[in-house]
Write a structure and sequence with these properties.
Length: 475
C-alpha cells in the first residue's frame, strides 16, 4: 500500500523530526524508570527478567540432578560482584549490564569428600532472559583437565524466571578477538526474527492509523501494554486458558479502539482539528493510560504464564515453546492482514483512503467508516502484540509500551509512513538490529534500543519516504 502524503515537504519533514525527538525522549524516560541492579554480597535472589533487566542464575546439582543447597557462588563481571547461596529452589540475581559473567564456586562450602566438576563457569547475560551456569557436585577431587574457565555454560528456562536467550553451549563463547562466534550470532538472529514479528503486529496498526488519518499516535504503545495487562488478568485472575485469553485480549483491545474513535477521534476529525493538535492529544492519552495500567499491576514486573517456560531448539536456535507458538501466531495474523488489505473490499477501501481520502470519498467510499475500522483493527493488533510479547519474554512492566514506542516509530518510518507492508519489513529489520546489537563487545544494555533511534534519524536524513513509500512533491 503506497503513501501519497507530501513526505518531501518541509512541514512534513519538521513533523517527522518532532515525532522522532518525542519518541526518543519517551524511550529514554522508560529506560531511566527501570531500577538499577544491586551489587555486592547482599542482593535479591528472585530476579525476574524483563525488557530492561538481565538475570544470572547459578545452579548446583548432584549426580541425581537434585539441587544441592548451601553452596556459595560468586558472580563477577562488568564491575559487578555478588555472592549467592544455593537453595532447594532456583536463585538468580539482576546484573547491571549485558555481557559475560564468571560464576565461581567457593570450595570451602563444598561438603567434605566432594568437589565440583569445574570451579568456574562463564555465562552471557542478555536483557529479558536468565543466563544459567550449572555446577555438579561429585565424589572425590575434580579432574585437573576439567578446570577450564571456558567450560560450557548452561542456560535454560526453569525456576521463577522468564525465557532464556538460548545462548548456552561452548560454541557461544567469544573468540580471542572478543567478537562472538557464529552459533551466538545465529541464536541472536533467531531472537531478532521473533522480536521483529511480534513488533510488526503493533507497527502495522500504527502505520495504518497514520495512513488513513495522518496522526502519529503516541498512545499506541500503551495499547501494547494494555494487551499484556489483559493477558495477565485473563490467565491469572479470570482463570481462562491461554487461547481464550488471547481472544479476550484482542476483542477488548479492539473495543477500546472503537470507543476512542466514537468519543474522541471522530468528533475531533469532524471539527477539523489540525493533525499537530491531535498528536498532542495522543500524548496526553498515553500518559493517562500509563498510570491507569500502573494502578493495576504496580511498578513490578508481572508474568502472564505462571508455569515455567520449556525450551525448544529448532535449526540451532533455542527459544521457549511459547516463543515459537507466538511466532507462528504472528505469521498467521500477518498473512490474514495481507489478504485483508489486498483481497477484500474493505481492505482495498482502506488502501484507497490511505492514498487519497478525498478521491476515495468521491468514488463512494465513506472515509469515517474506514477510519473507525482501522482504529478498531489496529488496537486489536496492538493488544495481541503486547500479550504475545509478554508470553515470549516471560514478563512485562507498565513501561513496556514506552520502550517499544520508539521502535514502532522507527519501523514504520523505515518501511514508509502509511504503508502496512513497509511497517512489516521495517519491524523485521529493527528486531534484528536490536537483538544483534548486543553482540557488539562492550555494548551497554541500555543502548540496545537506541539503535532504533539511529535508524530513524538516518532514514529521515537519507530517504524520508522509507523503503516502500514514495515521496510526492507539493506545489
Amino acid at each position: 500500500m503506497k503513501a501519497d502524503r507530501p513526505i518531501a515537504s518541509p512541514a512534513r519533514r519538521a513533523l517527522a523530526v518532532v515525532v522522532a525527538v518525542l519518541a526518543a525522549l519517551t524511550a529514554s524516560a522508560a529506560m531511566l524508570a527501570a531500577p538499577a541492579a544491586a551489587s555486592g554480597a547482599d542482593v535479591a535472589t528472585d530476579c525476574t527478567p524483563d525488557g530492561t533487566t538481565a538475570c544470572v542464575s547459578p545452579i548446583v546439582l548432584d549426580n541425581n540432578n537434585d539441587p544441592v543447597p548451601g553452596i556459595e557462588v560468586t558472580i563477577t563481571g562488568n564491575d559487578f560482584e555478588a555472592v549467592v547461596t544455593s537453595t532447594d529452589g532456583p536463585v538468580s540475581v539482576a546484573v547491571p549490564t549485558v555481557g559475560r559473567y564468571t560464576l565461581t564456586v567457593d570450595p570451602a562450602t563444598v561438603p567434605d569428600g566432594m568437589s565440583t566438576d569445574v570451579p568456574e563457569r562463564q555465562v552471557v547475560a542478555q536483557t529479558g532472559s536468565t543466563a544459567r551456569g550449572a555446577f555438579r557436585i561429585v565424589q572425590g577431587s575434580a579432574p585437573a583437565e576439567n578446570g577450564s574457565t571456558t567450560a560450557p555454560s548452561e542456560t535454560g528456562t526453569g525456576g521463577e524466571d522468564a525465557e532464556d536467550s538460548g545462548i548456552g553451549d561452548e560454541g557461544t563463547t567469544e573468540n580471542a578477538s572478543g567478537w562472538p562466534e557464529f552459533s551466538q550470532v545465529w541464536q541472536q538472529f533467531g531472537s531478532g526474527i521473533r522480536f521483529g514479528l511480534l513488533l510488526a503486529l503493533a507497527s502495522v496498526g500504527l502505520s495504518l492509523i497514520y495512513g488513513t488519518t495522518g496522526i502519529s499516535t503516541f498512545s499506541h504503545g500503551e495499547q501494547v501494554t494494555l494487551g499484556a495487562l489483559l493477558g495477565f488478568i485473563s490467565v491469572n485472575w479470570w482463570g481462562l486458558p491461554v487461547w481464550a485469553a488471547v481472544l479476550a485480549t484482542i476483542v477488548i483491545c479492539a473495543a477500546t479502539g472503537w470507543f476512542q474513535d466514537v468519543v474522541l477521534w471522530g468528533p475531533l476529525r469532524r471539527r477539523g482539528t489540525p493533525v499537530m493538535q491531535l498528536m498532542i492529544v495522543t500524548i496526553g492519552l498515553s500518559m493517562s493510560l500509563q498510570y491507569v495500567i500502573q494502578m493495576f499491576i504496580g511498578g513490578r514486573s508481572q508474568r502472564v504464564l505462571p508455569q515455567n517456560a520449556r525450551p525448544v531448539e529448532i535449526a540451532g536456535i533455542t527459544l521457549s515453546a511459547a516463543s515459537w507458538l507466538s511466532m507462528l501466531v504472528a505469521l498467521a495474523v500477518i498473512g490474514v492482514i495481507a489478504w485483508f488489505l489486498t483481497q477484500t473490499r474493505i481492505g482495498r477501501a482502506t488502501r484507497a483512503v490511505s492514498d487519497n481520502a478525498a478521491l476515495a470519498a468521491a468514488t463512494g467510499i465513506n472515509p469515517d467508516r474506514i477510519v473507525r475500522i482501522v482504529w478498531t483493527m489496529s488496537t486489536g493488533l496492538a493488544g495481541l502484540s503486547g500479550m504475545l510479547l509478554a508470553i515470549s519474554f516471560g514478563s512485562f512492566t507498565w513501561t513496556l509500551g514506552m520502550i517499544l514506542l520508539l521502535l514502532m516509530f522507527a519501523s514504520v518510518t523505515l518501511g514508509g509512513m502509511g504503508t502496512a507492508f513497509g511497517a512489516l519489513a521495517g519491524s523485521i529489520v529493527i528486531g534484528l538490529v536490536v537483538e544483534m546489537s548486543t553482540l557488539i563487545p562492550g555494548m551497554p544494555s541500555s543502548l540496545r534500543y537506541a539503535s532504533g533511534l539511529l535508524i530513524l534519524i538516518l532514514v529521515l536524513l537519507i530517504r524520508p519516504q522509507g523503503l516502500l513509500g514514495r515521496a510526492v512533491r507539493v506545489g
